[in-house]
Amino acid sequence: MRIYLDNAATTPIDPEVMKQMVQVMESQYGNPSSIHAHGREARSLVEKARKTVANLLHTSPAEIFFTSGGTEADNTAIRCGIIDHGLTHAITSKIEHHAVVHTLEALEKAGNIKLSFVDVDDKGEINYEHLEQLLKDNERSFVSLMHANNELGTLTDLERVGDLCEQYNALFHSDTVQTVGHYPHDLSKLKVHFMVCAAHKLHGPKGTGFLYINHKVKIKPMIYGGSQERNMRGGTENIYGIVGLAKALEMAYSDMASHQHHIQGLKTYMMEQLQQIPGIHFNGETAADKSLYTVLNVSFPEMEMADMLLFSLDIAGISASGGSACSSGTNIGSHVLTGIGANPGRPAVRFSFSKYNTREEIDFTIAKIREIVSSS
Length: 376
What we know:
This protein is α/β, with parallel strands linked by helices. The protein has helices spanning about 15-25, 35-55, 70-85, 100-110, 130-135, 160-165, 230, 240-255, 255-275, 310-315, 335-340, 360-375, and strands at about 5, 65, 90, 115, 140-145, 170-175, 195-200, 210-215, 280-285, 295-300, 320, 320, 350. The strands form three sheets. A seven-stranded mixed beta sheet has the order 2-8-7-6-5-3-4, with helices on both faces. Helix 1 (about 15-25) packs antiparallel against helix 8.
């Protein structure tokens, strides 16, 4: 028996998404940039997908740019947003995804910006008062704060951040990789300049995503080549991936409420069962209105051979991810857990759920965890 509880890393592709992608692979092999019939047919698929994505997010197709995934989208938004607008100050948190933190640190090292980190509490929630002070002291900053932390699940209030950014004339980028397709996003109202998606986080294919760029913001391409994506991203479009992305997002929106109810139920149930094990601690926010319903981060009691915990779960047939906080410069652990001051002596595991998980799988996982903890 194999149980997959690492959906924050990637999700299994939906059979309906796969079916549609295969149909396109078999029949639509033209280059979307070609002007002949085969090319025009391929182009129509790309633009139909773009319109689908835009309609679901309540924005214009002209504001959706397809990419190879979330990392490219984050890099494009950050590098081009800062450099092309001549910004010299950026604000982020120490628990952002490395696609964000490392990109900003590289820009600081190159002398492009001064980088400030907004305070976060022991749950991973940002200090909004500190954010406002940083914005007040550094008007026209670039702000990059994720919607939901990929390790903890703690949610950020995008509306509140957007209002602050508008007040202090800042550009706002949010890594929304973990929440697109899991929460509705109304870009006609949300005050965000850049937002990203990776299809493989919502049962779509790997290697494709999109970057939303608000029409009020103009940037130059990060990848030069052809005139694809309205001269914003060189390279022949990944037609199959783009079609799969649109189909996955469409399906996610059509069943979003029922999937959230099902997955939140699994998370709540697992928390209730884990709380019966002495020494268990949950990292990040766990309240339903403050936490991503697909993610649960658990610190286990200190134990010998703590680094074998994930291995033991894998041997038992359970796929999850995690790691302790860094205890020193030589110990490579989770920068997120370190950022919230988690105990470095306690092993942590992130369990992340999808629509395909069942309560029976949770029961099996809990039983195996009890065995592992009791034998340590």
